[in-house]
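no rush on this but wanted to send it before i forget. what follows is a protein written twice so to speak, once as letters and once as structure tokens for the fold. mainly i need to know what kind of three dimensional shape the backbone takes. thanks a lot i owe you, the record is right below.
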Amino acid sequence: RKSMKVIKIILGIIAAIFLIVGIPIIINECYKANCGYITVWDGADVLGYYGAILGSIIAVATLAITIVFTKKQIQRDSFLKNENEKWDRLKAIFMQTLSDINPMRVLKDVMDNGITDPTKAINLLQRYQLDCKIANDILNAHLNMVDYPKFKKLIDSIAATAEELVSISQKEIDQYSDLRIWQHKDTAYELLKAEKDHPGSFSQEHIALNEEIVEKCKSISYESINQQITLLNTEFVRLYEEKYRALLQLTGSTFEAISVETQQQADRILSLGKKSRQAPIKPSDKKEGKDNGSN
């Protein structure tokens, strides 16, 4: 390709020299011989006529090149506008998804309410688990086969981190479930004592539930639950510092690389006689993306 380009340039230079210098010399030599077909005009007239024709051709060619370049400039600007709008929209979706799985957000809400209201903490953690589980589905829904490979590494990293966050959330849910049972321990003891003193005061279902609470409390303690919750909270913080921050950095670098690529594609539009081409998408890449989204 490079050699062909050089050959074309050399041929263009030769053609230009021939048109500008060669033909006038030929005309001059023809009239110097003063033989052959006799004309009513002389060599100066022919040279003037040829110069006018050549000047007109150059003017038309210049105008045509200007029109083509202006058209390509408009195409470039339109391409950049559409692509930047698309990438800005996708970046907003990615950032919102990352915000939804931010462990510090749910950790703060749980720490504010968990000890006094374990049920609320459980609900917060369950909603957070849902956000983590549907994160990749949301992202994949906004990507087509052409764009997916650009985000594959980022999406895989989000999926892996979200899986870890779901696991830790479930462990916290288990601990807050135990805490909720522990908080009903005294009530369960009192109810069973009342039933013992006054048989038939409560339904068998109610009695069985409270007996289950009392039995469960034999294997748990408030100190152990509090210690486990503290350890899990620390694990949330560790994941935020090691994994979540890395996701933010990877998101920034991914969109920065896309911005550079988009600018390069836009600049190629200005190249006369060239079409911007995109790398072919491997079917295996998209298949992996579908599998990842289904997980």
Remarks:
- Residues 165 and 239 are 8 Å apart (CA to CA).
- The chain is about 85% helix and 0% strand.
- Residues 43-100 form the longest helix (58 residues).
